[in-house]
Amino acid sequence: MEVDDTVCSIDAKFANEVSALLNPPHPLHLQEYFDNVISRRQCRGIKVKQNGELGKGLYADLDFKEGELVLKDQMLVGIQHCSNKIDCLVCSFCFRFIGSIELQIGRRLYLQDLGVSVNHESDLETFKHIPEDCCQTDSSDGEDNSLMNNHDNLGNCASSSSKERFPLPREVVESLMNEELVLPYSKEFSLPPLVRCAGGCGEAYYCSKSCAEADWELSHCLLCTGESSKSLCREALLKFMQHANDTNDIFLLAAKVISSTILRYRKLKVTHLEEREKCATPNVSDHSDISLLLEAWKPISMGHKKRWWDCVALPDDVDSSDEAAFRMQLKELAFKSLQLLKAAIFSKECESCLNSYQVFSLEIYGQIIGMFELNNLDLVVASPVEDYFLYIDDLPYPEKQEAEKVTRPFLDALGDDYSVCCQGTAFFPLQSCINHSCCPNAKAFKREEIRRKINRSGEDPEKIRRDPAKIWRFPAKIWRLKLTPTLTDPTVVHRSPIRLDPRLPAVGDGSFNVPPDDKDGQAIIIALKPICKGEEVTISYVDEDLPFEERQALLADYGFKCQCPKCLGEEQ
Ligand SMILES: C[S@@+](CC[C@H](N)C(=O)[O-])C[C@H]1O[C@@H](n2cnc3c(N)ncnc32)[C@H](O)[C@@H]1O
Questions:
Q1: What's the 218 CA to ligand 1 centre distance in angstroms?
Q2: Which of 189-203, 455-469, 512-526 has the lowest mean pLDDT?
Q3: Which residue is closest in CA terms to ligand 1's atom 20?
Q4: Ligand 1 centre from 436 Cα, in Å?
Q5: Residue 374 CB less than 6 A away from ligand 1
Q6: Atom of ligand 1 nearest to the CA of 374
Q7: How far is the CA of 293 from the centre of ligand 1 (A)?
Q8: Ligand 1 centre from 400 Cα, in Å?
Q9: pLDDT of residue 438
Q10: Residue 298, phi then psi, degrees to nearest 5
Q11: 200-236: per-residue pLDDT in tens?
């Protein structure tokens, strides 16, 4: 497929509108938007300001002590990585773990046993296999009762690592998954019951009706593959999702941005038309379509952007003479994805009165994904399953011995993956305003605590003690999810730049202002040292302990050379 042959008739036809959408916001509008976000979310003591050369930045509007919470940010959009959906069942809106400890373990063992890979079209169906009893809402179709029988189509075996696992009989796994078997002390770790997607897709589950409704309203009604979906074509939507799963799941996040913009635009347009009808004399100002679309697009317009295929740093394994071809491959990948998305949700009926086809421009798609490249945080939510097994391991004798008679086979069947957390990527409006420094005064992670690793049966206790890599779940601060982009293999997985760790911070005297119920996908920024009112809040986008050259090489991905005091001091 040649992108330039087809280039996007939309880009050509709506060049003016597309550039209006991509123009940097007026400084006054930008200030007003962020002041509003800060006051709506009741974030105390911070301000977003224009920062000359660096664009915008986040500033302290109060003094912060070391270890104090500077910001707790709600995501604008986020996704759980496809590969992680096998391991963790979380709310598709707030990313809390849902169901029960039994369901989490049983479902994972069941899918592990099937060798399920989400890179298989039919595997999208896999997530329908949740027993009916586990869900809060009623469903009369009974399709999920096929859990135990209907898996002929799950042939593609590529689940996560299977080393050192001790599989259990299918009936045992099933009884756990159906919650017929209750694990000791699991009530101490109760999780919100599952709520199904009202559209009937069986892929999205929620922790509450309010999360289900909010997601439906925000974007899911257009991206749902169920019967009540408002998408144009379910088959096309499945094709789009399959392409994203096969190449780069960042396209699913881009689709959420496009859907939410369309839905906001439609609401604005309907309200506008109603108000015009009500008023015989047009008191209501006559908004043109583009100004309503600009309003709907506003939250996205505020993010720092570049085209995806331009802003990705050239990977080491691509020769500079192949750079143009490499960038064209990324563009073609995005183009293919956008075509599939357009076939799925671009609605003919909307062309006449509710049109918003400008958002299907390739330029806009590229800039949305580029915005994710330059701003996104890893989404990490700690697993209650890990907490559960650690709790059992910490029980006094003889309770521990009794409990382990039941729990140990499950721990051994899960293997090293018992502690896998929810992983994804998300865009946060306020956190994304924070600039980088190699000597930062804040950090975007929660606690990188070394958790004790449980000594499972058959493991050499000495080896566990000596092998820190096994204990340290995430040794790298930047998590690059990359299927090595090469010219022969154009599959590129988005890397989310700044790691967000699941735990509370471990700096200073431990007097943190972070609520203990920190169990969802929010971003938390903690002061690493005292920050005075008026000072800029900075975080490090890379491991600041790396040598100068390595830091600069990693920061090239963000399109700048760091000039912080540490870098200036270390530069030859
Ligand atoms: C997450 S955004 C930070 C907010 C950004 N300044 C804005 O205007 O939205 C990351 C981008 O900010 C700029 N940036 C952040 N830290 C920087 C630094 N220390 N020096 C130069 N540019 C920086 C780079 O363009 C980078 O891609």
A1: 28
A2: 455-469
A3: 562
A4: 7
A5: yes
A6: 27
A7: 27
A8: 51
A9: 93
A10: -50, -50
A11: 998 899 999 999 999 999 999 999 999 998 887 889 9
Residue for token pair 């192949």? 322
* CA distances to 250, 311, 331, 488 from 494, in Å: 6, 12, 14, 18
- Residue with the nearest Cα to atom 9 of ligand 1? 304
| Ligand 1 atom with the shortest distance to the CA of 306 | 27
pLDDT, tens only, 276-318: 888 765 555 555 788 899 999 999 999 999 999 898 888 777 8
How many alpha carbons lie under 13 Å from residue 529 in its C-beta half-sphere?
8
Long-range contacts formed by 21-28: CB under 8 A, 24+ apart: 21/293, 21/294, 21/297, 21/301, 21/358, 21/359, 21/364, 22/305, 22/363, 22/364, 22/367, 25/298, 25/301, 25/302
Amino acid at 351: E
Q: Is 329 in the pocket of ligand 1 (CB under 6 A)?
A: no
Closest CA to 555 of 438, 474, 440: 438
Spatial separation of the C-alpha atoms in residues 558 and 223, rounded to whole Å: 30
Task: Name which residue sits closest to atom 19 of ligand 1, judged by CA.
Answer: 436
Q: What is the 3-state secondary structure (H, E, C) of 187-220?
A: HHHCCCCEEECCCCCCCCEECCHHHHHHHHHHHH
Closest CA to 425 of 386, 477, 480, 365: 480
Atom of ligand 1 nearest to the CA of 302: 9
Report the alpha-carbon distance of residue 2 to residue 433 in Å, rounded: 36
**Ligand 1, residues 58, 76, 302, 304: which to mutate, most atoms within 8 A of Cβ?**
304
Do residues 90 and 80 lie in contact, with contact meaning Cβ atoms separated by under 8 Å? yes
What is the spatial distance between Cα 219 and Cα 209, in angstroms, rounded to a whole number?
16
What pLDDT does 456 receive?
62
Q: Exposure string (b/e) for 160-199, b if CB count within 10 Å is 16 or more?
A: beeeebeebeeebbbebbbbebebbbbeebebbbbbbbbb
The rounded distance, in Å, linking the Cα atoms of 194 and 336 is 34
CA–CA dist 215, 261 (Å, integer)? 13
What is the DSSP annotation of 254-295?
HHHHHHHHHHHHHHHHHHHHHHHHH-SS--S----HHHHHHH
